[in-house]
Amino acid sequence: MELFYHTYGEGQPLIILHGLFGLSDNWVTIAKRISANYKVYIPDQRNHGQSPHDSTFNYYALADDLMEFMEQHDIQKPVLMGHSMGGKVAMNFALDYPENVDKLIVVDMSVRQYKARAIHYHLIEAMESIDFDQVQSRKDVESQLAEHIPQKPLRLFIMKNLKRYSGNRFGWKLNLPVLKENLDTIVEGLSSDQQFDKPSLFVGGGKSDYIEEEDHKLIPQIFPQAIIKTIPEATHWLHADSPEKFCEIVSEFLQNNCKSMDDLLNEN
């Protein structure tokens, strides 16, 4: 499968994997900020963004996609960073192919199995509720979504998946039927009995329940070199909530300078 991707910078390769309902665009600013000494790749994972749709959707397939992506672009021993679902993909890949990974960064995700989350089903139902025959603009779509998703930041996150077709018709980039059918798969825990004994960073949000006290004991059992950090004021989307602190933590782990927003503006 040939995945759509963005790339920034030059140097050692670093791959960022987005989470469920996300896409590469969510990580462009962070990618640019950590690209001082890295060539950063951000692919859209299957059934997301501009990448192909497929009826198979599980961590085995997503890890295979990553291996194929690395082979297609001759990427050797990258740093892997994954958020939420992307974090599980990165962990599974690191355990299956430890010789192909230099370092691991996992953003607000642990190794255990989670309970199915009502919010995931709710978001899919909200997207399915849109009557695209009755909308003429993005504003019309947002207005319909607001009836189901009153939180504006979450609504705008979902709106990034909106696609405009020819003839001013809209639709979703996401493969909603396949995502809905496989939601239980996405909350699965790691099944490997291996360890990844290389530098690993886990960053959690203090207002999120994805990395809790029990996870501080579980994570080192599989990732013995793990450093676990928490950003107290951040939710599950900590890279958006607290970009400065997130960039600082990641840069310290990578021993790399994080570009300031002023630097990015000057580059443009």
Could you characterize what this model shows?
The protein is of the alpha/beta class. It has two domains: 5-114 and 192-267, Alpha/Beta hydrolase fold, catalytic domain (Rossmann fold, 3-Layer(aba) Sandwich); 118-181, no CATH class. The chain has helices at residues 28-33, 59-72, 85-96, 118-128, 138-146, 152-159, 176-181, 183-186, 215-222, 238-241, 243-254, 261-267, and strands at residues 5-8, 12-17, 38-43, 79-83, 103-107, 162-165, 169-172, 200-205, 226-231. The chain has a seven-stranded mixed beta sheet, with helices on both faces. A two-stranded antiparallel ribbon has the order 6-7. Strand 4 (79-83), helix 3 (85-96) and strand 5 (103-107) form a beta-alpha-beta unit. Helix 5 (138-146) packs across helix 6.
Helices, strands, pairings?
Elements: E1 5-8, E2 12-17, H1 28-33, E3 38-43, H2 59-72, E4 79-83, H3 85-96, E5 103-107, H4 118-128, H5 138-146, H6 152-159, E6 162-165, E7 169-172, H7 176-181, H8 183-186, E8 200-205, H9 215-222, E9 226-231, H10 238-241, H11 243-254, H12 261-267
Parallel strand pairs: 2-3, 2-4, 4-5, 5-8, 8-9
Antiparallel strand pairs: 1-3, 6-7
